[in-house]
Amino acid sequence: MMVQMDKDKKRLIFLDAAKGIGILGVMFGHITALGNPIDRWLSTFKIPIFFLVSGFLICRMGRLFDTSFKEFTLKRGRMLLLPYFSFSFIVILYRIGTRILKEKETVDQIKDLAVDLYKTMSFGGIQALWFLTTLLFAEVIFFLVMRLHLIGRIFCVSLALIVFFGTDGAFHTLEGMVSGNVYKIIRIPVLTLTKGITGFLFLGAGYLLYLLLQKFSDKRYRFVLGVVLFFTNILIFPFNTGVVDYNNMRFGIYPTLYIICALCGSVGFMLILEYLEKYYKFPILTWCGRNSLILMATHGALGFKSIIVKGWANVVSLSSEVCLKYYIECLMTLCHLLIFEYGVVEFVNKKAPVLIGRPKKKE
């Protein structure tokens, strides 16, 4: 099915704002240390929303069928793998330095370095860097599947659903069959691939969302739909108890509810933001969205989050139980982390854009 390219190539504010919500959800989740309702709610959509936005943009630009596989992979590889390896190299050097300062045993330093190198080269990623390779795999899989006939697409979607529902159990079975170290070695690259396959499902949902919205041009109806989806997400997410962690392919006790919540939350936010952007431009959210790659790569892996959290705990306090005070403290910690990250983002964008695959602008 061919899609007409959107003639208006201007950047859509609501998509940047949606990604901004996603990255703020990720950062907030890394700050919180308790299994609280807010973090559990954010976990229902904070990663899928990135895939939906990516699929939405692929459909909007209409270049999926006019691009060769080589051209597509080279372009997306440059935009995602270059930052992945650039920041991984910086993080590894940073970790070597901190281990030396901590005066860790040489043998332990070598083991930790070997783990970091293996995670990087197997595309598992150090901390949040895993998302960059996962997004790339999801996009490449989507590109290949869209080249198939309808039956082939249905078959691939079915396989992806099997992977989605069966990965957690398969890993538990594998863990009981092989030794601990062998399991860890096998798990990292396989987990990366399965996350990409799952991301392909949400990316496809974003692609379909763009097509569906072309049938409903009135943004007021879209807004109403967005509100309905948003509150649907809030009402049903508490029923999916258990651990929800996309990075480890754990989706609670009812994975089907996770899919429903992910779609309702992501699409709900996107449609609400689309309508409200004519009244407010969401400067903080859009800034976070446009720089989400840098924020994703640096806030945890380079220790910024830990420094801010421990600094806040020492200077002010950090509650040991879930309460209003705890949420306020986590929110204030997030604000401090964003202030810190602002300097990092400005430095990368202006002085070292090559780290994120962009040429340096001439002054």
Describe this structure in words.
- This protein has 363 residues and is an all-alpha fold.
- Helix content is 72%, strand content 1%.
- It has 14 helices and two strands; from the N terminus they run αααααααααββααααα.
- It has a two-stranded antiparallel sheet.
- α1 (13-31) packs across α11, α6 packs across α8 (180-213) and α7 (150-177) packs antiparallel against α8 (180-213).
What's the layout of helices and strands?
Blueprint: H1 13-31, H2 37-42, H3 48-61, H4 69-101, H5 106-121, H6 130-145, H7 150-177, H8 180-213, H9 219-236, E1 244-245, E2 250-251, H10 255-276, H11 283-290, H12 292-298, H13 304-315, H14 324-351
Antiparallel strand pairs: 1-2
Give short descriptive properties of this protein.
globular, mainly alpha, 2 strands, 363 residues, 14 helices, single chain, two-stranded antiparallel sheet, disordered N terminus
Derived from helix and strand composition plus strand pairing, the structural class reads: mainly alpha
Low-confidence stretches: 1-5
Q: What string, H for helix and E for strand, traces the elements in order? A: HHHHHHHHHEEHHHHH
Radius of gyration: 21 Å
Task: Give the helix level as a range of percent.
Answer: over 70%
Q: Please report which band the strand proportion falls in: under 5%, 5-15%, 15-25%, 25-35%, 35-45% or over 45%.
A: under 5%
Average predicted local confidence, pLDDT: 90
What's the number of helices?
14
Count of extended strands: 2
* Overall shape: globular
Spatial separation of the terminal alpha carbons: 44 Å
Major sheet size, sense and barrel closure: 2 strands, antiparallel
The spatial strand order of the largest sheet comes to: 1-2
